[in-house]
């Protein structure tokens, strides 16, 4: 069994060399920052549209006010969904990196 662990074929050497460069933590950090930025833009956009909707009620244009309020809710929900989607991608990337590291530790 020790002999099997110590034997390395040219293919396994290539895979080990490639796997050293397969993870880019800068990319994960960038996607994580973009996720937070998209959530912040969605929340700010929601509040701006909500305020515009309330001003339309004061001007007597009720239908436009309800439209702005509906769009503000949609912008908030889209921002939350974008944030969650990007966070899932970051978590999948991190989990794959951890699995890869564990497999390489088992091979040694």
Helix/strand layout:
Layout: H1 2-6, H2 10-20, H3 25-58, H4 62-107
Total of helices: 4
Strand content: under 5%
> Percent of residues in helical segments?
over 70%
Strand count, sense and barrel status of the largest sheet are:
none
Shape: rod-shaped
Mean pLDDT: 83
Gyration radius (Cα, Å) is: 25 Å
Explain the overall architecture.
It is a single chain. The protein is rod-shaped. It has 108 residues and is mainly alpha-helical. It is built from 4 helices and no strands. The protein has one domain. It has helices at 2-6, 10-20, 25-58, 62-107. Helix 3 runs antiparallel to helix 4. Helix content is 89%, strand content 0%.
Key attributes of the depicted protein:
108 residues, mainly alpha
Describe, in short, the structure shown.
It is built from four helices and no strands.
